[in-house]
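Quick one:
INPUT:
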């Protein structure tokens, strides 16, 4: 079941609705989230960065909620206020963008702060990962968009050499970056950024250059690509959702501007956030009037309107509710096993401590509510060394599995070559027949 989750910058909690029926499922208390600060961590729990109580406050917490409890269960207090949050699909890491322009990277299983680096001159406004999750893309108030290789961030030798930590730095925006989305295609994917300068810019991750710049009639605070990457949807402060083409030719006669091929509009206030359903046609928007609207992008009509609270909405997500979702009456101690410890405040560099890094284990059966995919690397290394010892049944099993995999790959390769040979044979036979018929005529 897909659910819509929305939060507000005022303390109105987090609302959760069934996407299909529109019925409210839960309401989580005590949340005044930052923009791009609401996160579903691998579907295991919710996380949200909080706004500061006052401008003079030195920091602001990050809250965790389990699916079945309305109250905050884990409170973390980073070294500085965190705005946008991001995590990989397995929920191994959480990344946060700081007010100072720094990016923080935490290990979820232990809560340890593994890395902190100065990414921008001013505060980080948005974060997203590439489709293969090897690159982190950040936007900032200074107008820059930067691409970071997560692998290189842990290369101490390269870092000490003094070279630029980022892979690309795009600085064509004149004002603050409001949102970033990344397409499919791994290293050949595109990235779209929106800014207060009323432009959305399309970048190439493989070439590191600007492909297209589109100017809109209004400031664009939220963008989402359709799954086919033919168009993208841009939510404006004028209450309209603009539809912009990614590959179309320039149309100087467009009523809204070049490359803008249409709009979605329902007399709402400024559009602050967008999310796409997995069906590829359902778009959800949040706005300053406190409503969540569900759109059918084929008909361009609103199919459902959901009321959040009195305050505006600044985050909206569409997530699959976990299959192990259990009622609130379940054993609370059992549910607490699903939540990680609080995120640490500083990078831990105590000498003599066992170094731990999160690794991803194969997923267990979906009906098992205990998420045990996350272990420390030293445990895995110990198991690997034991298996590598000679004359052990474990090592023999590993060799057998390896041989089976190689055999399977060889059979697949043979079948591919066989099919290719048959296709070529059919092609030559048809050409020969066609040639004989033409000569007879």
């Amino acid at each position: 079941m897909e659910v819509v989750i929305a939060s507000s910058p005022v303390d109105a909690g987090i609302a959760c609705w069934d996407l299909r029926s529109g019925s409210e499922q839960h309401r989580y208390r005590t949340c005044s989230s930052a923009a791009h600060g609401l996160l579903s961590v691998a579907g295991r729990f919710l996380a949200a960065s909080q706004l500061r109580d006052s401008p003079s406050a030195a920091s602001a917490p990050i809250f965790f909620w389990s699916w079945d409890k309305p109250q905050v269960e884990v409170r973390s207090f980073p070294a500085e206020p965190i705005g946008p949050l991001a995590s990989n699909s397995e929920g191994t890491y959480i990344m946060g963008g700081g007010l100072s322009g720094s990016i923080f990277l935490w290990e979820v299983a232990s809560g340890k702060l593994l890395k902190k680096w100065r990414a921008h001159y001013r505060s980080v406004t948005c974060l997203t990962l590439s489709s293969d999750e090897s690159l982190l893309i950040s936007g900032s108030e200074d107008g820059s968009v930067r691409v970071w290789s997560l692998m290189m961030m842990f290369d101490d030798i390269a870092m000490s050499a003094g070279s630029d930590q980022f892979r690309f730095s795009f600085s064509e925006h004149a004002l603050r970056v409001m949102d970033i989305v990344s397409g499919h295609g791994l290293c050949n994917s595109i990235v779209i950024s929106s800014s207060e300068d009323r432009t959305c810019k399309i970048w190439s991750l493989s070439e590191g250059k600007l492909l297209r710049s589109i100017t809109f009639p209004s400031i664009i605070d939220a963008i989402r690509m359709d799954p086919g990457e033919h168009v993208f949807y841009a939510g404006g402060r004028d209450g309209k959702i603009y539809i912009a083409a990614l590959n179309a030719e320039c149309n100087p006669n467009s009523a809204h501007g070049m490359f803008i091929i249409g709009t979605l509009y329902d007399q709402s206030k400024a559009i602050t956030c967008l999310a796409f359903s997995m069906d590829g046609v359902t778009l959800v928007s949040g706005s300053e009037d406190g409503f969540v609207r569900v759109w059918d992008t084929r008909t361009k009509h609103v199919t459902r309107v959901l009321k959040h609270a009195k305050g505006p909405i600044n985050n909206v997500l569409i997530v699959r509710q976990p299959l192990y979702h259990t009622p609130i009456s379940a054993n609370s101690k059992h549910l607490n096993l699903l939540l990680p410890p609080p995120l640490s405040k500083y990078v831990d560099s105590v000498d003599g401590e066992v170094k731990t890094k999160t690794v991803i284990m194969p997923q267990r059966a979906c009906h098992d509510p205990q998420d045990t995919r996350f272990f420390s690397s030293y445990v895995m290394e110990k198991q690997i060394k034991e298996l590598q010892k000679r004359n052990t049944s474990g090592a023999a099993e590993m060799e057998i599995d390896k041989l089976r995999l190689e055999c399977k790959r060889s059979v697949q390769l043979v079948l591919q070559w066989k099919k290719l040979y048959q296709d070529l044979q059919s092609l030559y036979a048809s050409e020969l027949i066609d040639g004989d018929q033409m000569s007879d005529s």
